[in-house]
Amino acid sequence: MFQNMLEQLYGIQAEGEPIEVNRYPALKGNGWIYLIANPGRREAADIQELAQIAEHLYQLGDQGVPIFLPDKNGNWMAEWEQKQYCVLASQQTEENRKRPRLGRKLAKFHERGRRVPFQIQRISRVGQWKRLWEQRLEQMEKVWNGLLFQTPEDDFERMFIESFPYYMGLTENAIQYLVDTELDDDPLEIDSGTVCHERFTQNTWASSSGSYSIKFPFDWVFDHRSRDLAEWTRARYLHNIQTYDMDVRLFFEQYQSAAPLSSFTWRLLYSRLIFPLHYFECVEGYYITQSEQEKKVLEERMGKILKQSSEYERFLAQFFQLTGAPVKMLNLPQLEWLYH
Question: Which of 4, 194, 201, 273 can bridge 114 by disulfide, Cβ–Cβ 3.0-4.6 Å?
Fold first, then answer.
């Protein structure tokens, strides 16, 4: 099906069977890999901005970034069989199998992203964390208040009703830490906005087959680099709370070998780790989904999050020490209550 689409709408000859790269169908041809992506709810202006950013990163030498291809009519989105698609092209060689130094690669990606020579508007999240966190907290508090005087319908609801005051307190701590950072600390040049990811993890740049490493533009947001550092750390911690130490230490060593962190970055990063995003996503997911199976999975996840809450406090208490952050030199504030 997609071979016909590429030929008719883009004038591209592709060979062989479709493969899958980063969850997307793809075809090979002329030494390129063509990824076929559904743009979802994105508008043409969003796609145009992503296309410009991708072109910028590619021109700066990032071979892992695919470029958007316009169709024969010059559109970034093409319609095929009543659906919208974007086509991205990557001149990819197969990944070499040795373990990549992900921290260093991310630092270089951020450095290129910081040099985008035009105003980013559509996908920018710079300076918006406080407002977004407050909104999420307010919405969740409304739901919680509505449940307070009813008998819980199930185990999930009981856990949510009992745990929310604690996580509300943690969220308020995160917001306060963020506000203090913005009031007390001056951002440096390294703190300007850059290309980041909605949620950066160990697997964001890895394809499902493991053969290709592609930095997929639909994962991107424009934000402070600490977003990616915090979300990688959170995901690695949650993946296995017994074994994260070495990986986290190594990741930050690698990153800082290419881009040393400012006190502003350390503090933003820490505020983001204090914000209990994993708890919010679990509760929001439960009340959005219609699937009973998904609800069961989220109920188990909630039980695990609550059981590990004191372990998460321990993780927050030792984070600066673990990553070798120069706490005294940069005067990085600690959360006093974590140490009592």
Answer: 194
pLDDT band for position 209 (cuts 50, 70, 90): low
- Say if residues 223 and 125 touch (Cβ distance below 8 Å): yes
pLDDT digits (tens, 9 = 90+) for 180-200: 999 999 999 999 999 999 999
What pTM was computed for the model? 0.94
CA distance 288 to 275: 21
d(CA 317, CA 115): 34
What's the pLDDT tens digit per position in 93-127? 665 555 568 999 999 999 999 999 999 999 999 99
Q: Is 65:53 a contact under the CB 8 Å cutoff?
A: no
How far is 198 from 45, CA to CA, in rounded Å? 19
Q: How far apart are CA 156 and CA 142, in angstroms?
A: 17
CA distances for 274 relative to 141, 206, 326, angstroms? 18, 27, 19
